[in-house]
Amino acid sequence: MNLDELKDSWQADAPGPEPGHRNEEETMQAIRLQAKRFDRKLRIRDWLETTAALVVVAIFAAVLPSMNWLARAGLGLVIAACFFIAWRLHATRRCRQAVGADRPVAEVLAAEVRRIDDQIGLLESVLWWYILPIALGCVMAVAGMRGLGWFTLGYAGLVIALGAFIYWLNQRAVRAGLKPRRRELVRMLEADRGTRTGGESE
Amino acid sequence: MNERETFFLRLIRENDASLRRLCRIYAPDADRRRDLYQEILVNLWRGLPGYRGDSRPGTWLYRVALNTALAFRRDGKWGREIPVAPSDLYRRDEKAQPAGSAERLQAVERLYTAIGELPDSDKALVLLYLDDVSYREMGEIMGFSESNVGVRLHRIRKRLGDRLTEGAA
Question: Phi then psi for A15, rounded to 5 degrees?
Fold first, then answer.
């Protein structure tokens, strides 16, 4: 039995509507609603990230003048880190949106590999651009406000432990999620390249 | 109903059976097929304003649908592969089935099972081939050259043919 013999049967196989099937008007309403929800979710996510960064900056900027130089330097570092983090996440996301779902499949797969590489890069270097500036800034600010005592030491210990946990979570996401997904995509793309090479030699 | 909605509904109506077969191939059970089908429709609707008519509507639809299906699987919207069981099939429109089709239906079931064992991008090519899409259009959808499509399909057809012969024996 070959594939051509089954073509007619395949095309005659018309899977019927699933349970909960709607008429066209209901379908349109549901699609409009879901598309609106999806767009709203994106807008809310962007708004929350920006607002959170602005709130942190506003609070820290308000208390900054009343503090000594060490606390000011610490909070200044946290403010700068907030701006940098917001910019970096925004830049990575904009890069990811460059290829639409209506492009050829191989192009979308290649873009997905680049997107995953960006994410892996972000998470692998998370210590330097996210954890360290925020942690260092917070510890400096507390040291400036409370002096170099037990409280500051305990706080620093807590911040280091929290930073280590966040770092571990990020590296686990790279190992368990992103790298296997990247391997799968590369396998699909390489299968294509392998076929091209094979095709030329055949 | 405005022009965009009319065009969208016509496109879905004309390609509904293909979309459902695609969902059947890429999603292992009825619930996830329904989720995938809805996600494809939403992506088609959201992408419609960007469609400039530089490719056939069908080509555009297949690209969006396949990219959505592949992303759906990659994003792990289901945790594990569940083999397609006969009891877990789409509810078919019995009127649409030709008379005396039990044997054909069995053959199509075997075909679905065999396609399910292929890698994801090969599944896409078989689907397009069975839907009678031309090699040139398959190339445009997948981003392969026409000769590459031919070479791949030759291998896939052989593999599926062997599998179907084994299954029928």
Answer: -55, 130
Query: Complex ipTM, two decimals?
Result: 0.78
Phi, psi (5° rounding) for residue A125? -100, 15
**Tokens coding A137:** 């800034």
Query: Using a CB-CB distance cutoff of 8 angstroms, which residues of chain B are in contact with residue A22?
Result: none
Query: Residues A123-158: pLDDT tens digits?
Result: 999 999 999 999 999 999 999 998 889 999 999 999
Q: Where are the alpha helices (DSSP H) in chain B?
A: 3-26, 30-47, 57-74, 102-116, 120-130, 135-142, 146-168
Q: Which of B38, B94, B148 sits opposite A199 (nearest CB)?
A: B148
Contacts B20 to A, Cβ<8 Å: 14-15
How far, rounded to the nearest angstrom, does the alpha carbon of residue A33 sit from its chain's CA centroid? 25
* Alpha-carbon torsion (A155, A158, A164, A165), positive or negative: negative
Q: Taking residues B129-154, what's their average pLDDT?
A: 91
Element (H, E) at A117: helix A105-124
B-chain residues near A14 (CB < 8 A): 17, 20, 92-93, 96
Q: How far apart, in whole angstroms, are the C-alpha atoms of residue A122 and residue A153?
A: 30
Please tell me which residue of chain A has the smallest CA distance to B109: A10
What pLDDT, in 10s, does the model give residues B18-73?
Answer: 999 999 999 878 888 888 998 999 899 988 988 888 889 999 999 999 999 988 87
What are the pLDDT digits (tens) for B75-121?
A: 665 443 433 333 333 344 444 555 556 777 888 888 888 998 888 88
Residues 38-57 in A contacting B (C-alpha not used; CB under 8 Å): 38-39
Report, in angstroms and rounded to the nearest whole number, the Rg of chain A calculated over CA atoms.
26
Residue of B45, B94, B118, B151 to mutate, interface with A, max A Cβ within 10 Å: B151
A1 CA: distance to closest CA in chain B (Å): 6
